[in-house]
Amino acid sequence: MSGTQERSTTDATGLTRTRVVLVDDETLVRVGLRLILGADPGIEIVGEASDGLEALDVVRATSPDVVLMDIRMPRLDGLAATERLLAEQPDARVVILTTFDTDEMVLGALRLGAAGFLLKDTPPALIVRHVQDAGAGRTTLSPSVTDRLIASVTRQPKDERREIARQRLDGLTERERDVARAIGRGLSNTEIASELFITVATVKTHISRILEKMPADNRTHIAICVHEAGDV
């Protein structure tokens, strides 16, 4: 699967659409999501699946920008499907959309490389925005999930967390800190490159070095560190 901009489609009016696959074992949920997302002119639903195994086949056939993935499904659950999907197609953007938000599920999904974690009670307009953000390369989390993630990643008191985060940022070069701050603001690689007047390839190099130096598992953890340091 290639980069987001290459996968997105452009219609006759020149509008770029985010191509989405819906994965949920409940038909009514998929119908509701199709109605919500399909009503937005910037989103195109290109496939649906009712379990993780079917999702892998649909994603291989359609190469979507974003996969909205439920967790608890028959045959192959959403976390296992996400792991397999990202092993095959590392650039895929998987957003977990579920009613379950235990610490283990949130952390498990993000460690596997999911681009976001949303709850099914998220207002429809916000689901649309989160899908668009994911398609643009941004990590997207429900506010309640962000709070729980921060609490789960580290249990230290707030002052201790701030000091640890600042020490991690102090180990970066100034340019790496600029990139980390941009990630903390939710910018995609393309937006970071434009803002800092560097290439996307250079942005990716900086991110790799940041992940190694902090150390961090993914850009979500970079964003958390920046916020805890108060360095946004």
What does the model show?
The structure is a single chain. The chain has 12 helices and 7 strands. The chain is α/β, with parallel strands linked by helices and 232 residues long. Strands 1, 2, 3, 4, 5, 6 and 7 form a 7-stranded mixed beta sheet that branches. Strand 1 and strand 2 form a beta hairpin.
Question: Would you kindly provide a brief summary of this structure?
Answer:
This protein is of the alpha/beta class and 232 residues long.
- How much helical structure, as a percent, in the residues? 55-70%
Within CATH, the superfamily of the largest domain carries the name Response regulator
pLDDT < 50 stretches: 1-6
- For this structure, the quaternary state is single chain
Outline, from the CA principal axes? globular
Note the gap between the termini: 32 Å
CATH class of the largest domain: Alpha Beta
Q: What's the number of structural domains?
A: 2
Discrete helix count: 12
Number of strands: 7
From the 3D coordinates, which CATH architecture of the largest domain would you assign? 3-Layer(aba) Sandwich
Write down the overall mean pLDDT.
83
In CATH, the topology of the largest domain is named Rossmann fold
Order of helices and strands: HEEHEHEHEHEHEHHHHHH
The computed structural class is alpha/beta
Sheet with the most strands, sense and barrel status: 7 strands, mixed
Radius of gyration: 18 Å
What share of residues are in beta strands?
5-15%
